[in-house]
Amino acid sequence: MRNKVRKQKFHIIGSGIAGLACAKFIRQKHKSAEIVVYEAAARPGGRCYSYYDKVLDHQLDSGTHVSLGVNKSINRLIDKKKFIYRISFYDSIRGKIARSISRFKSHLLVSIFNTPGHEVARSLIKTVFWKLFPFTMFQKKIYYSHNDLSQRLIIPLLNYVSQIKYGWKLLKVEDKGGHVTRLIFNNNRSVEIGARDVVISALDAHNYCKIFGGEDFDYEDIINIHYRTSVKLTLPENKKMLGISNGMAHWIFINKDIVSATISAAGNLHIDKDELAREVWKEICHIRGVAAAFIPPYRVLRHRKVTLKMDWANNNKRPESATTKFDNLFIAGDWTYKDFPCCMEGAVLSAKRAAKLCTKKF
Fold first, then answer.
1. % of the chain beyond a pLDDT of 70
2. What DSSP letter does each residue of 160-218 carry, written as one string?
3. What one-character-per-residue DSSP string does 2-61 give?
């Protein structure tokens, strides 16, 4: 009687874009693999997800996530993309949409890297402006989330997972001879790791450093403000997305009756959230050329430590590859992809790299 061959097993820590993309790329190589994802939260998606907001009585995305047409890896995963075709900027001083946007490079830097432009590492700037956007960057298509990010991206990726365990927070690991042998979770739970099992950490940088050691990073915040209006608003020239120069908000997005504003590199912005919502709403009304009679219902979401600060010191500390000191532990996540912005595209590229290495080795 033949011995039953044990399926290849992969343990993925974290169900953000990087973790779930890892599951997809692994499944493409190992059709019958057992892929188990462990997630500390009660839902998948990490920092990219949709949820029902009781205050606004509407489904919202955790933040307005943007992907450019050249971001091919993430775009292949987004279901039924709705693209627009140009980045436009509104100059608050001149009071009009700019026809030439070459002078908005600093605005683009803070938006792409979530870091003040003068602090961004030169190697990262080179990557973006010479590799990611060669010559025709402003002609590329742009996608932004429409409060259905989970439906378009996260839920479809769950189809590649054998099992997902919610409420499982990794606390530490046990190892022997450079091999991870056990994962220790909250609530006195643990999982034994077999000799041929693979572990992929798709944790954010802060939690990874807490568990596996290493010097932590400096981080930046992003603030998103969502307003629920009684009717669909319009921006100048019927734009659905505007970069704002010389304003408090960096970007404004229209999603039917939801108006969303994004403030990048907000770590040093210390202002009461209600006052912030009022000031940004005044700005939106000014751009639209109407009086700010009253402020509609709103939700202010401050995402703390959402990305690494993209300066030279932090970029230099990022990993060189997906390998670790353990032969069966690999890492994924936008922060692990050195010389590339911390973004959805970086998360998918890191997942592809980690999946390729671990499936090749095991």
1. 94
2. G-SEEEET--EEEEEEETTEEEEEEETTTEEEE--TT-EEEE---HHHHHHHH-S----
3. PPPPPPPEEEEE--BHHHHHHHHHHHHH-TT-EEEEEESSSSSBTT--EEEETTTTEEEE
Per DSSP bridges, beta strands 198-201 and 329-331 are parallel
229 is a domain residue: yes
Question: CA 245 to CA 107: how far, in whole Å?
Answer: 7
Average pLDDT over residues 122-136: 73
Dihedral of CA 335/338/340/341: which sign?
Answer: positive
What's the CATH number where 44 sits? Answer: 3.50.50.60
The answer on 267 and 127 residing in a single domain is yes
> How many structural domains is the chain composed of?
2
- What is the pairing mode between strands 163-166 and 34-39? parallel
Q: What is the pTM of this model?
A: 0.93
pLDDT in tens, 210-223: 999 999 999 999 99
Give the number of other CB atoms < 10 A from CB of residue 234: 11
- 2 located within any domain: no
For residues 222 and 124, state if they share a domain: yes
- Name which of 114, 123, 117 is nearest 315 in CA terms: 123
Q: Which of 286, 303, 279 lies closest to 242 in space, CA to CA?
A: 286
Mapping DSSP to helix (H, G, I), strand (E, B) and coil, where does residue 258 land? strand
- Identify whether 345 is part of a domain: yes
In 322-359, which positions are buried (b, 16+ CB within 10 angstroms) versus exposed (e)?
bbbebebbbbbbbbbbbbbbbbbbbbbbbbbbbbebbb
Instruction: Supply the range of the domain harboring residue 174.
Output: 9-49+151-216+317-361
Give yes or no: residues 170 and 301 share one domain. no
Same domain for 176 and 142: no
